[in-house]
Amino acid sequence: MFQTSVSEEALKALAGFRTYAAGTLVVFDLIGTFVFALSGAVAGVKERLDLFGVLVLSFAAASAGGIIRDLLIGAVPPAAISDWRYLGVSVLAGLIIFFRYPVSERLHKLGNLVLIFDGAGLAVFAVAGTQKALGYGLNPVMSALLGMLTGIGGGMLRDALLSQVPTVLRSELYAVAALVGASVVAVGQVLNFPPTAMAIAGAVLCFAIRLIALRRGWRLPVAGVPQRFESEAGIVDDLQDKIGKR
After folding, report:
1. Sign of dihedral through CA atoms 208, 211, 214, 216?
2. Distance CA 145, CA 213 (A)
3. SS3 content of the chain, % helix, strand, coil (to 5)
4. DSSP letters along 15-66, please?
């Protein structure tokens, strides 16, 4: 009898999640896809890539985190490759940046655009990833970690494709901001708060932490390197630069 009631509750929870996932969660996911695609496209334009390169980078930045999330929770095939809207949104964002870049340049410095779009995508994907993980039965702690991974995955692939050290490994608070936003959603689930309200709150908090960290230079401690090693590293970098110019 007890086992039957538990099964019924689980089925009701799954049905409720599917209803939410078909509406609000998809909207959050598509918003995150669009914003991260903008960051990828801006980074591609900054590196002087051609149209194909910009579109590839916009799709990679927009979809990597969601694909990793879906594979880990068993939501296959991943939404980014089974739903045409994700590809459409990524391509649209890439085209907008590629053809309207001069207007964007007058409004903002290009580097600032990458950071702003990246921060917005980080926030939205962190909360959407957490909610989807919760809907697939993961516990709140692991759901929050998976939400963080969803948020940082696209930026890591974008930077790797451009031969850059990923932002998450070298920049002001990045993964920490995503984890805070994801944790808000996970705690809201435990306390039975409305999922949409908690998603908005988590995204706003994540984005705010990221922007404040950028403005004030907040970052996690960096290991101290003896001056002798810094000098040796500088010599190696100079040699690599000379070899690369030949």
Report:
1. negative
2. 21
3. 85, 0, 15
4. HHHHHHIIIIIHHHHHHHHHHHHHHHHHHHHHTT--HHHHHHHHHHHHHHHH
For residue 5, pLDDT beyond 60: no
DSSP 8-state class, residue 237: H
Determine the Cα–Cα distance for residues 35 and 26; give it in Å rounded to an integer.
14
Pairwise CA distance, residues 40 & 94, whole Å: 8
Cα–Cα distances (Å) from 140 to 129, 132, 189, 190, in that order, read 12, 11, 8, 7
Q: Distance (Å, rounded) from C-alpha 237 to C-alpha 246?
A: 15
d(CA 94, CA 184): 31
Q: Are 125 and 79 in contact (CB under 8 A)?
A: no
Give Cα separations from 96 to 10, 34, 35, 42, 120 (angstroms): 43, 11, 12, 10, 17
Distance CA 216, CA 127 (A): 24
Neighbours of 108 (CB within 10 A): 13
Read off the pTM: 0.77
Place of tokens 């950071």: 115
Count the Cβ atoms, other than its own, within 10 Å of residue 204: 14
* Arithmetic mean of pLDDT, 221-237: 57
What are the pLDDT digits (tens) for 63-78? 999 999 999 999 889 9
